[in-house]
Amino acid sequence: MESIFDLDHHREPVTADLDIPAALCRQHPLDLPNPSELEVLRHYTQLSQRNFAIDTHFYPLGSCTMKYNPRIAHRLANLPGFADIHPATPAQAQQGLLHLLWDLQNGLAELTQMAAVSLTPAAGAQGELAGVAMIRAYHHARGDFQRRRMLIPSAAHGTNPASARMAGFTVTELPTRADGDLELAALERELGPDVAGIMLTNPSTLGVFERQIETIAERVHQAGALLYYDGANFNAILGRVAPGRMGFDVMHLNLHKTFATPHGGGGPGSGAVAAAAHLEPFLPLPRVQREQDGRWRWLGRADRPQSIGRLNAYAGQIGVLLRAQAYLRRLGRAGVKRVSSYAVLNANYLLKELQRVGYRAAFPQRRASHEFLLTVEDLHRQTGVRALDVAKRLLDFGIYAPTIYFPQLVPECLLIEPTETESKATLDRFVAVMAQIRQEALEQPELLKGAPQRLKLGRLDEAWAARHLQLVQER
Amino acid sequence: MPYIPHDEEETAAMLAAIGVDRIDALFDEIPQHLQTFPQGVPEGLSEMALAREFEERAAAQPSLRSFAGAGAYAHHIPAVVPELIGRGEFYSAYTPYQAEASQGTLQVIFEFQTYIARLTGMEVANASLYDGASALFEACLMALRLRPQQRSILVPRYLLPHWREVLDSLLPLQDVRCIELDADPQRGTVRLPAQAPADAAALIIPQINALGLLEDVDALQRWATDQGLLSIAVVQPLSLALLREPGGWGESGADIVVGEAQALGIPLNGGGPYCGLFACRRDMVRQMPGRLVARTRDAAGRVGYCLTLQAREQHIRRGQATSNVCTNQGLMVTAATIALASLGAHGLREAAVRSHRQARSLLAALLDLKAVRRPWDGPFFNEFVVRFPISAVQLRDALLADGILAGVPLAELGLGEDGDLLIAVTERVSDEDIDDYRAAVGRILEQ
Amino acid sequence: MSTIPEHLRYSTTHEWVEDLGSGRYRVGITDHAQELLGDLVYVELPEPGRGVQSGVTCGVLESVKAASDLIAPLTGVVAERNEALGEHPEWLNEDPYGRAWLLVLEAVPAATAELLDAAAYGRLIEGQ
């Protein structure tokens, strides 16, 4: 498809008398195109049509919770009364917004059974960074500077070790047992006075609930360390199990997963952090507080001197937070529990049906959470077809591919998360397509290796891209 | 059941296929005593009731003509921007892992990278970071990866204070410290020391500083080069329609450029979501944080786009990644790209010129008032400080009644004096707005 | 099944070493290693004159989907590095034992004594 840089019409430059010294001014005119408004509209409309998206396709991307993004939330977040607020507006002129954010803080605290919430982290990764920085600040505030190590299961999302390292920790990876639960003996071996905490996702990235969670929490706390909960998989237990009750001290939530805010082609997300009472003083700022007189205001450094501080310029991704609050308010008490119920029903049904048509579960003896892992290692051995090929073939049937090659410890794996907003009919069609793909893999593996066959482009050459590295349009 | 399609019959059939009799049985691996119902969450609302609640909250705050800036600006947003970014194909897609099914998002990012590279005069730009301040934090870490022996960053006193706070929160976690550079009290711009501290990796150069003033960027860039420092330019992209691009600063140009792209088609949103831009020299690209999109081709030679250099990123490098950042500000990147396309070179320059011109008009109108003066009188783009004979907070609060957000009191940023107000003007400000502002201030000052 | 030339010696971290005589050794990665990594896109090698230590990271190999440390199979000093790989990382996939050599190291004579022979390396990768 053509580039926006090809759509140019000559426009006479605007002449101006500037009150700026010439040495500080641009010496050459901007080298940017001047397309017409219709050309812009057409170009980006046509580009949008080259995307798969939840609104147009089933999108069972494991660990990403690609559920329907309610349009009412979009409309309400864009009300001019919110969209036009400048961040430096004094609190008395943004009471309506602060009220909603306050409600969201409380709702999330209730669902996680944590004492307090900060909404400022801009994404799950920033929430993680905030959480582990809080763990560090907690130990330091107690005069304990020895705890420099963070324990993380080897199956964890790569962001966990990256965040821990950004907060100044070294990382020790813990092995997982064949049944998907953590190797408790390894944990006990590693725990010691130099361990600050452990980062866990539960249900884990393997799509199963960590059954020993209470024992783990007990051991970790006995060793003077804290537990961090990665909320990536919170959709599996929303309204049913609270991380605060499982023994976690601090956590983040991915509002763009569990709370149905849009993924927007990669962002913006939101990674609100929730903490137990002993970590509340360290939560990032600003946060919303309700005063005695019933008015709302931002909490700052003067109110919370022990806070880890500010993570981005303002108070986080407010437009995303408003969408999450709209979703939570629409669902209410009964609705949130239905989310986890049907997310888990859909995942377990899909797993059973895919096993029925010949696919292998990575953890067949376990109940699926809101997602599950398949391995196509058997197909790979028989036919040379890899998980990547299955993924690319799915695109030909108008289905976005599941997450592949994650977690890395399961070979040739596909991580599948249908979410609660997909109907049985959609899942049944997916099973039928997967059955056909399996048949194709056995009978004509080259078809899969050359997939996608039916899209506008064939399989793109990522090696060529990295070797030639054209990152901007040449002039 | 909002958003859940299952009817009873379907649910029953699915449970039967699984081999359990009720949904609760699917949670049988979770200890029963951990399963508790969240009593504190209120009952759900109908879509109508929900809309009413939000509309009431939105109406609770006055509609204001904004003269506030300090990093966020009320520029005009072309109508095609919200129209296009609301399309489900952009709105509800995710990170383009499967390139063949994500060409829309990928090409938009490639165009964004190109726009940012051209605006900043740099060779490469990434797919964006959370916001300008977090992009600056990441730029500092990148500078330290490029200068692994060094431990500090030189930060001018008049970097936006809330950006500085982000550095102060996050850099010490990796034993990196900020060393503040003084400002010249008369000029309000950076005063360079003769010698950089020995452990400094980089100099931050904000072109437009926190007082709205323009820095002598050539001198700062030359000093950085002479001292063997990397330079990190902090820019406001719309101003680059008029101001010298960082790639052209000094003889060598800046090394890394970051900035807040909110001014390009992104609503104020109370402070987010915004969009951090990030550009650098090509030979530094492997140390760059964040997503990158490259042009490539398929087996038939057709041009397409895909994510590239993913081996730098956390999902592959884990603890050794350049950053923990997983994605970009996708939808905001889409907004900024479409805004840039709609405005074009012509419209960008027009918006920048008009912002500058209206700012000068408002400044002149205010200086006309008795006892109002400008504490620092250097060149500016669209933002300046005026010193009033009364508290700027008091003045700002009083003007709310006139539907005017008069600016950001410097005292709230921890800078300047009590009467100092930082005022920003965009192309949306009409001559009538300027008259109204002046009249309202005049009225308050006479009281 | 990947190729394992008989005349080379191998490390357990999938580097090959060729004894060039006079204390000079040519080093590269094995066919098995390039298969595991997939399409190589970038190589970072130590500069000539730098010392490297057996078992310790001395460079980076980057493919589309993985980044892998290059582990020095010997202790020695870098005499030469293959500059052409900067332009042609794909050679590592096409010809890992030939034009995609990585380094020439100078080390003590018989430095390869600790390394595996082709048969032992073959058993190693069979078992993995």
Beta strands of chain C, count: 9
Helix/strand structural class of chain C: alpha+beta
Distance between the termini of chain C: 13 Å
E-strand count of chain B: 14
Q: Mean pLDDT score of chain B, rounded?
A: 96
Put simply, the count of helices of chain B is: 12
Largest interface between protein chains, with number of residues from each side: A-B, 191 and 197 residues
Parts with pLDDT < 50 across at least 5 consecutive residues of chain B: none
Terminal CA distance of chain B reads: 59 Å
Q: Which whole number gives the mean pLDDT of chain C?
A: 91
Radius of gyration of chain C, taken over Cα atoms and rounded to an integer in Å:
13 Å
Give the DSSP E fraction of chain C (strand runs of 2 or more residues): 25-35%
Q: Do you know the CATH architecture of the largest domain in chain B?
A: 3-Layer(aba) Sandwich
- Largest sheet of chain C, order of strands side by side? 1-2-3-9-8-5
- Described by the principal axes of the CA atoms, the overall outline of chain B is globular
Can you walk me through this structure?
The complex is a heterotrimer of chains A (475), B (447) and C (128). Chain A has 475 residues and is of the alpha/beta class. Chain A folds into 3 domains: 4-48, no CATH class; 72-330, Type I PLP-dependent aspartate aminotransferase-like (Major domain) (Aspartate Aminotransferase, domain 2, 3-Layer(aba) Sandwich), CATH 3.40.640.10; 335-462, Aspartate Aminotransferase, domain 1 (Alpha-Beta Complex), CATH 3.90.1150. Chain A has helices at 37-48, 71-77, 80-83, 95-112, 124-141, 159-166, 184-190, 213-222, 243-246, 255-258, 318-356, 377-383, 387-396, 424-443, 445-449, 462-468; strands at residues 116-118, 149-153, 170-174, 195-200, 226-231, 250-253, 273-275, 287-290, 296-299, 360-361, 372-375, 403-404, 413-416. In chain A, strand 12 and strand 13 form a beta hairpin. Chain B has 2 domains: 65-75 and 345-446, Aspartate Aminotransferase, domain 1 (Alpha-Beta Complex), CATH 3.90.1150; 80-338, Type I PLP-dependent aspartate aminotransferase-like (Major domain) (Aspartate Aminotransferase, domain 2). Helices cover 34% and strands 14% of the residues of chain B. Chain B is built from 12 helices and 14 strands. Chain B is globular and about 80 Å long. The mean pLDDT of chain B is 96. Chain C has 128 residues and is an alpha+beta fold. Chain C is 16% helix and 34% strand. Chain C has helices spanning 31-37, 91-94, 118-127, and strands at 9-10, 15-21, 24-29, 40-44, 51-52, 57-63, 67-71, 76-81, 103-106. In chain C, the strands form 2 sheets. Chain C has a 6-stranded antiparallel β-sheet. In chain C, strands 4-6-7 form a 3-stranded antiparallel β-sheet. The longest helix of chain C is centred in the last third of the chain and has 10 residues, at 118-127. At the A-B interface, helix 1, helix 2, helix 3, helix 4 and helix 5 of A face helix 1, helix 2, helix 3, helix 4 and helix 5 of B.
